[in-house]
Design brief:
The structure holds 2 protein chains of 2 kinds.
Chain A lengths: L8 E2 L10 H7 L1 H4 L11 H20 L7 E4 L2 H15 L6 E5 L4 H12 L3 E5 L9 H7 L4 E5 L13 H11 L2 E5 L18 E5 L10 E5 L28 H39 L3 E3 L10 E6 L4 H7 L3 E2 L1 E2 L12 H5 L4 H4 L2 E5 L6 H21 L1 H7 L13
Chain B lengths: L4 H8 L14 E8 L4 E9 L6 E9 L2 H14 L4 H5 L3 H8 L6 H21 L15
Antiparallel strand pairs in B: 1-2, 2-3
Classes of the chains: A alpha/beta, B alpha+beta.
Chain lengths: ~400, ~140
C-alpha cells in the first residue's frame, strides 16, 4: 500500500465529484469581493457579476458546442430536466400530448413524465437492450403525430451505457420532434455536441464535473428550431424569462470554470480512467470468479464500472469494503427497498441486482487507490462467499434457478 | 446508514459459520428467504441424542450485514437450549440485542423463521423416533 493513501477512498464519482480546487479558487472572489447582483445594471458591482456570468455562459456553451446565449442557469439537473420536460409540455400542448423517453432514465426525468401522465399526457417508456441501449429505430417507431418531445439520457448513471444520441437526434429532426437529453453524466466525460447530435435541450449539472453542488444548466436551442419553454417559476424574468431568480453568481462561475477545465482535460482524463478501470477490473477478476459486468463493455462512461458479485449481497459487500465509498443496486441500499430498476430493465435478475456494486472512478482516483480497492474487494467477497448458502449450493453444482425458494 | 457495534462485530467475526450434514437425523435445517429478495438464511441445529438439547448450531447467510448478524446471533443463542426454549426466541429480542433500525426488522424476522424451520425439519425427520427424548410439537 502506498504511504500516501488516504482513507476513506471516494470511488462514487457517478453520484457526485470532489470540487476541483481550481474551481473553488475561481469562485472565491465572488463571495466576498465581487458579490454584486448580476441583474444590477447601474453600478460596478452588478457589472462585474454580470460579466462573470456571461463569461461562464460561454464556457458552458463551448463544452457542448453551443452558444452562451443558449445556456439557462438552474439549481441543478433535476430542475433542468423538470424545466425542459414540463416547460415543453406546457408550451407545445396544443401541438400534441405525447412524450417518448426510456425506462432507465433518472428519476428526475421519469417523475416529471409521470406527473404529466396524470395531467393528460401520454408517455412511451422505451425498453432497452441487455446493455442498456435504446435503438434509434425504436425511437422512430414510437413517434406519432402527437409526439412533441423525445427525452433520452446521454449516459446512464448506474451502468454508464452511452446512448446513440446523434442517430436519435437526426430522427427527431427529420420528424419535427424536440430532442432533450439528460447529459449529466456525459458532459465533460465523453464528447457531447448539440449541433452534431441534433440536441434541442440538454441538462447538465456542475457537481458531476468537479464543480459545486446546487448549480446546473439547461441548454435551450435558439435556432433551427427556436425552442420555447413555459417557466416553472414566476418572478423577475431572469434567464430569458425561463428561469426567474437572482443568479447564483459564485456557483455559476464555478460551473463555468469546471466546464472549461473539463474541456481541456477530457481526452487525457479519458485515457487515464480507461487504464485505471481496466486495472480495477483485471485485478478483481484475476482472483474472483462469477462476476458479471453490467452495462456495455465498450460504449460506456470511462470512469464507470458496475459489477455483480454473484452469491454476495451488495450492502454486505459495501460493509466489507468500508474504507471505500461505492454504490450498490441492492434493495437494501435504496429507500424503496426495491432493487435497481435500471438493472432490472437490462434483464439482470433480481438476485444479481442485489449483488451489484458501482465503482465510479474520477479525476482524483489514483493507481494506489485502485490497488487498495482490489485487495479490499477480494477479501470482502471471499469472506462473504464463505458465509453464503448460495455459494455453497453453487459449488455443490445446484442450479439456483431451479430451487423452490420460500420467498417472503 | 450507521451500523451498531454489535452488528459490526457479528459481521466481521461471524459466529458458527458452516454446515452440518443435512442427512444426519440429529440435524435440523432451515432455509428461508429467496435470492431475488436479497436474503437467504440457512440455519442448522444439531441435537444431543441423550439430553435432547441443541448442542451446536451453524449458519450461512446471503444478505446484508444485519441479516448476517441476526443469524450469527441466533446460532449463539440456540446452543444449549431445549427445542421448546428455542421455539420461544422472538425476533424482537434480536432487534433489541443488535439495535436494528426499523428498516432492518425483517432480517430478525427471517432469523426467527429460520430457527423455527430448522426445528420443524428436525422434528419431521424424527417423528416417532427414539432419538426424540420427549414429545415435541410439530407443524408450527
Amino acid at each position: 500500500m502506498s504511504a500516501s493513501l488516504k482513507l476513506p477512498i471516494f470511488m462514487d464519482n457517478n453520484s457526485t465529484t470532489r470540487c476541483d480546487p481550481r474551481v473553488v479558487e475561481a469562485m472565491l472572489p465572488f463571495f466576498t469581493e465581487n458579490y454584486g447582483n448580476a441583474a444590477s445594471r447601474n453600478h460596478s458591482f452588478g457589472w462585474v457579476a454580470e460579466e462573470a456570468v456571461e463569461s461562464a455562459r460561454e464556457q458552458v456553451g463551448r463544452l457542448i458546442g453551443a452558444s452562451g446565449k443558449e445556456i439557462i442557469f438552474t439549481s441543478g439537473a433535476t430542475e433542468s430536466n423538470n424545466l425542459a420536460i414540463k416547460g415543453v409540455a406546457s408550451m407545445y400542448r396544443k401541438k400534441g400530448n405525447h412524450i417518448i423517453t426510456t425506462s432507465i432514465e433518472h428519476k428526475a426525468v421519469l417523475d416529471p413524465c409521470k406527473r404529466l401522465e396524470r395531467d393528460g399526457f401520454e408517455v412511451t417508456y422505451l425498453p432497452v437492450d441487455k446493455f442498456g441501449r435504446v435503438s434509434p429505430e425504436q425511437v422512430a417507431e414510437a413517434i406519432t403525430d402527437k409526439t412533441i418531445l423525445v427525452s433520452v439520457m446521454a449516459a446512464n448513471n448506474e451502468i454508464g451505457t452511452l446512448q446513440p444520441l446523434a442517430a436519435i437526434g437526426a430522427i427527431c429532426k427529420a420528424r419535427g420532434v424536440l430532442f432533450h437529453t439528460d447529459a449529466v453524466q456525459a458532459v465533460g466525460k465523453v464528447p457531447v455536441d448539440v449541433e452534431a447530435m441534433g440536441i434541442d435541450l440538454l441538462s447538465l449539472t456542475a457537481h458531476k464535473l468537479y464543480g459545486p453542488k446546487g448549480l446546473g444548466a439547461l441548454y435551450v436551442r435558439r435556432k433551427n428550431p427556436r425552442v420555447r419553454l413555459d417557466a416553472l417559476m414566476d418572478g423577475g424574468g431572469h434567464e430569458r424569462g425561463m428561469r426567474s431568480g437572482t443568479l447564483a453568481v459564485p456557483g455559476i462561475v464555478g460551473l463555468g470554470a469546471a466546464c472549461e477545465l473539463a474541456g481541456k482535460l477530457r481526452e487525457s482524463e479519458t485515457q487515464r480512467l480507461l487504464t485505471l478501470r481496466k486495472r480495477l477490473y483485471d485485478g478483481i477478476t484475476a482472483e474472483l470468479g462469477d462476476i458479471g459486468l453490467n452495462g456495455h463493455p465498450i460504449d460506456r462512461l470511462p470512469g464507470n464500472l458496475n459489477l455483480s458479485f454473484a452469491f454476495v449481497e451488495g450492502e454486505a459487500m459495501m460493509m466489507g469494503i468500508r474504507d471505500v465509498a461505492v454504490s450498490s443496486g441492492s434493495a437494501c441500499t435504496s429507500a424503496s427497498l426495491e432493487p435497481s430498476y435500471v438493472l432490472q430493465a437490462i434483464g439482470v435478475g433480481d438476485e444479481l441486482a442485489h449483488s451489484s456494486i458501482r465503482f465510479g472512478l474520477g479525476r482524483f482516483t489514483t493507481e494506489a487507490e485502485i490497488d487498495f480497492v482490489i485487495r479490499q474487494v477480494i477479501t470482502a467477497v471471499n469472506h462473504l462467499r464463505e458465509m453464503s448458502p448460495l455459494y455453497e449450493m453453487h459449488k455443490q453444482g445446484i442450479d439456483l434457478s431451479t430451487v423452490a425458494w420460500a420467498a417472503h | 446508514m450507521a451500523y451498531s457495534d454489535k452488528v459490526l462485530d457479528h459481521y466481521y467475526n461471524p459466529r458458527n459459520v458452516g454446515s452440518f450434514d443435512r442427512a444426519d437425523p440429529l440435524v435440523g435445517t432451515g432455509v428461508v428467504g429467496a435470492p431475488e429478495c436479497g436474503d437467504v438464511m440457512k440455519l442448522q441445529i444439531r441435537i444431543n441424542e441423550k439430553t435432547g438439547l441443541i448442542e451446536d448450531a451453524k449458519f450461512k447467510t446471503f444478505g446484508c450485514g444485519s441479516a448476517i448478524a441476526s443469524s450469527s446471533l441466533a446460532t449463539e443463542w440456540l446452543k444449549g437450549k431445549t427445542l421448546d426454549e428455542a421455539m420461544d426466541i422472538r425476533n424482537t429480542a434480536i432487534v433489541e440485542e443488535l439495535c436494528l433500525p426499523p428498516v432492518k426488522v425483517h432480517c430478525s424476522v427471517l432469523a426467527e423463521d429460520a430457527i423455527k424451520a430448522a426445528i420443524k425439519d428436525y422434528q419431521t425427520k424424527n417423528l416417532g423416533s427414539a432419538a426424540v427424548a420427549e414429545p415435541l410439537m410439530v407443524g408450527v
